[in-house]
Amino acid sequence: MTTHASSEKLLRPRDAVVTATREDTRGLSSEILRRSARRLRILALMYAFTFFMAGYVPNLIFADARAMMLSSAMYWLPGVIAMAMALAVAALTVYAALPLSTMMNVGLVFLVLSNFGIAIAEYTHLSHVESDAWMGLSWVGVWTPLFTVVIPTRPAKALIATIASVSSVPLVIGWMILSGRTAFHLSPPEFFFAIVFPYILIVALAYAGQRVVYALGKEATRAQELGSYRLVERLGKGGMGEVWRATHRLLARPAAIKLLQTSAGEGPDGEMAMRRFEREAQVTSRLRSPHTVELWDFGVAGDGRFYYVMELLDGLDLDALVRRHGPISADRTIFLLRQVCHSLAEAEAHGLVHRDIKPANILMCRYGGEHDFIKVLDFGIVKVTHAATREAIATQENVLRGTPAFIAPEQVLSAGAIDCRADIYSVGCVAYWLLTGDLVFRGETPIAVMLHHAHTAPVPVSQRAELPIPPELDRLILSCLEKDPAKRPQSARELSRQLAEIPIATPWSEERAEIWWSRHEPDLQPAATSAS
């Protein structure tokens, strides 16, 4: 027995690392730059940690070293400033909504300043030394190549930053000598070959490595092309596949591409995933309800992976809506559920049972000039009841499908044929979530939750909701949650009609929806369908 679990959501968080751009104009995709921003955060944190452990912990342990370090701010202040700067850069990558290109420029500035922090910390405390303690490579010689290879940047920019970075050692040592802060002296030729020449070699090595990394990044960007579409940014990843923001080579319209993780023929699991993926594309392409996500194209990538192209939607799913803003009012719930019923009614007419209706698969979006516009997503485990359609779209039987928190009793018990009334039960669970901010049933395990759905009577919504619930809506939701399918509304069209008949003093309207969006989600990033 298997269950279909909820996958990673594809909404970008409000405190996103960086704001995405269409694509890097210098040849690297936004996804590669986003990964570079994450690496920048890791490097900055690693810099601060290593600096503290190597430069301060030993000096704090031993009394003589501690006394010397505290004798002058020159010995401890530069390192503190360098570590604070590293932590600030790490914080910027998390909390600042900077364009990716700007974030990469911040990284290059950090590279230069961090190397000066290393050089000052390494050499200013040697002012009393008159030996060859100045000789040998600085940690600058390690940090600079590491940084330029891990963070891909245009070669020209990288070269300038690398030269500025490694110059920190000759400049600091030269300043120490010329200012008389040390009695250690070198003749100009000795200074060049001992202090300058090694870092010229480091510049050459770092530049060569960076060019290779940058070229690989451009090749990866070119490889992210599927038919007439070019992948720009990964929006999410689940057990079944990935969803990417994409652009068409000729059309200005953005799109979302769902890409199967495995290639055709990669074992039984890969074959099953491929059939499900293909079925989802075929089923979705047959549906024309404006409240069903629209599919535009379907194909096979160069590496054998299936993909399909769909509309890119600007909104958030109902799971995220309640988690972010709390339960919603009864009038708004009715407004949203009727749109869900519109999509399911067409699916019923085609003999299709969705079998995975849940808040995460219902997107509330801004669509054209409308707000609170519903799109039903993810027909990956749809069940086909019409014989003609079943012949065209293969399904796998005798496998439990659905999400435990929203699954119908007959799906749990495998009692009789599964029909559209299973989706009606799931819609009741969704309504419960919207009005209460809680699930109909909870349990320690998914099996326990499913057994509750099969045998336990639900608590009425009105007893758990904080907002007023019309008695008619309370009864209708309980009727959707009946264990016996015959006692539920018998179709999505009938459910929509009963929802419309519930008396509401002030029905939810487009005007109210627009006001809500402008106040609560003015800058929401586009979303796409589930990657499960």
Any overview of this molecule?
Helices cover 51% and strands 12% of the residues. By secondary structure, the protein is α+β, with helices and mostly antiparallel strands. The chain has 3 domains: 30-223, no CATH class; 225-311, Phosphorylase Kinase, domain 1; 314-520, Transferase(Phosphotransferase), domain 1 (Orthogonal Bundle), CATH 1.10.510. Strands 3-4-5-6-8-7 form a 6-stranded antiparallel sheet. A 3-stranded antiparallel sheet has the order 9-11-12. It has a two-stranded parallel sheet with strand order 1-2. α5 runs parallel beside α7 (155-166). The two termini are 18 Å apart. Mean pLDDT is 80; it is low at 1-27 and 387-399.
Defining key terms:
19 helices, 12% strand, six-stranded antiparallel sheet, three-stranded antiparallel sheet, 532 residues, disordered N terminus, elongated, Transferase(Phosphotransferase), domain 1, alpha+beta, 3 domains, 13 strands, Phosphorylase Kinase, domain 1
Describe what is shown at a glance.
By secondary structure, this protein is an alpha+beta fold. The protein folds into three domains: 30-223, no CATH class; 225-311, Phosphorylase Kinase, domain 1, CATH 3.30.200; 314-520, Orthogonal Bundle (Transferase(Phosphotransferase), domain 1), CATH 1.10.510.10.
